[in-house]
Each structure stands twice: as C-alpha cells, then as structure tokens.
C-alpha cells in the first residue's frame, strides 16, 4: 500500500507528458502563423506591383512616341520587376487592358506552400493571388 501512495504522490513525469502533448500543436500553430504571414506579404507585393504598373501605364499610354507594344512592355516590366524583387518563383502573369481613358493592370501570382504539413490543408498545394489596379490615362 505504501508503494501505491508513493507512486500517486510523485508528479515528475506529469510536466513532460503535458509538454509532449502540447508541443506538436504549438509548433503547428506557429508554423501556420508564419505561412499565413508570408501569404499576406505575397499579396502585398502583388498589390504594389499592379498599382505601380497601372501608374506607369497611366503616365505613358498617351505618349505618341512609343508603339503600343513598347507601352505594354514598359508596364509589364514594371510589374514583373516589383514582383521579382519581392517574391520567388516563375508563376506570375501580367494582363494589361485599356477601357476608354482607363488602363487596367492585373497581376497574378501563384504562391506555393513551402511546408508539407501546412500544404496538405490546401486543395492544390498553392494559393492564387490576383489583384487588378486601374489608373486614368493622363
């Protein structure tokens, strides 16, 4: 009977057991927050790229010394430069349209989830990030 009372009163292994139960949940939560932060960063870069490209497009689209191809290339290069400076990968597209006196630039980027455990929560293992910005042609 004394042995049972002694085992019941010792709690040395309790904290290790609780730590072993909580640690995986805590690590998953922290990595999820980090991945979410990097997705938000990617969205911010895509928004900046579309906004800057539309701004450039509004400034140069009425320039008669440039061909339509040159104008589109300047706009596309502006967006791709901003995206390339902030994000890695090659899955990015820039779509330029003119409607009346307004230029619209759509930037699309595919963000691939880097961690397999977090990646399994998404159906196609990636997040498509799109943003369209418009600017009046000056």
TrEMBL record:
It comes from the Bacteria. Keywords: Membrane, Transmembrane, Transmembrane helix. InterPro entries: TadE-like_dom. The chain crosses the membrane at residues 21-42. It holds the Pfam family TadE. Residues 13-55 form the TadE-like domain. This is TadE/TadG family type IV pilus assembly protein.
